[in-house]
Design a protein that fits this description.
The structure is a single chain. Helices cover 56% and strands 0% of the residues. By secondary structure, it is mainly alpha-helical. It is built from ten helices and no strands. Bound molecules: heme C (HEC). The site of heme C has 28 residues, from helix 6, helix 7, helix 8 and helix 10.
């Protein structure tokens, strides 16, 4: 018993440090992707738009509201471009900015089972083109991860790519690199249709496809 307490007391500083570390990690803010000067520039443009709206109010109040609305959207866009991560980031449309998406993916954890459901859903219809066997209209689902790692990333056009980067780009920006032997027919609007969480789930599913690639 005595030994137990002694061990506990010895461990206390370590526990306190771990706890402090966890608190620090929670308070950590995502890195800014634009400078304070760039922020000031964007702020000035937004202020100018609002001043224009104020001038419109007497003659055309509806046009003034329209400007408010658009300026609000532009302000959100500007904050996102400067690295702001909104609290509901997981459920928002993920967009098509690959470096930004790769950063944001740290905020969520992907569920491969849900990814499989999404992949086979009628709404996204990934499965409609990506059947399991090769030689069809699109690369096979089987071995997607292995193929990315062992074949695609050896293409000089993809030098310096990571697998995640390749997979994310393949989904939100399919025309950027068209897999050899296929046409550029994959819908290019998945960035608008998928939330960050959906994308993370799909990636977790694709990353589980690490068997033999039929190609
Ligand atoms: C209309 C058919 C079609 C649909 C729907 C489709 N894809 Fe594709 N996809 C393709 C084709 C064709 C290619 C190969 C050409 C290219 O790289 O764009 C491809 C390439 C890919 C690649 C790269 C595969 C490799 O071997 O390099 C991934 C990953 C991918 N698609 C994932 C998806 C996911 C996830 C969905 C659903 C959200 C989806 N695709 C929906 C046709 C489709």
């Amino acid at each position: 018993m005595f030994n137990y307490f002694r061990r506990l007391i010895k461990a206390l500083p370590l526990l306190a440090l771990t706890f402090a570390g966890m608190m620090a990690a929670q308070n950590e803010e995502p890195a800014l992707t634009c400078t304070a000067a760039e922020m000031a520039q964007q702020q000035a443009a937004l202020a100018q738009a609002l001043a224009a709206a104020a001038n419109q109010m007497a003659d055309d109040p509806y046009a003034a509201l329209d400007t408010w609305f658009k300026t609000g959207a532009a302000a959100q866009e500007a904050a996102l471009n400067c690295g702001y991560v909104p609290p509901d980031v997981a459920t928002r449309a993920v967009g098509a900015d690959v470096p930004r998406i790769l950063n944001l993916l740290d905020e969520v954890s992907g569920d491969p089972l849900n990814g499989q459901l999404l992949y086979n859903s009628d709404t996204l219809a990934c499965y409609g083109c990506h059947v399991t066997q090769a030689g069809e209209a699109a690369p096979a689902l089987d071995g997607t991860y292995t193929r990315a790692e062992e074949t695609r990333l050896h293409d000089p056009a993809l030098a310096d790519y990571t697998i995640s980067q390749y997979l994310v780009e393949s989904i939100v920006h399919p025309g950027q690199y068209v897999s050899p032997g296929y046409d550029n027919v994959m819908p290019n609007n998945y960035g608008e249709r998928l939330s960050l969480q959906d994308l993370a789930d799909l990636l977790a599913y694709l990353e589980s496809q690490d068997g033999e690639s039929p190609e």
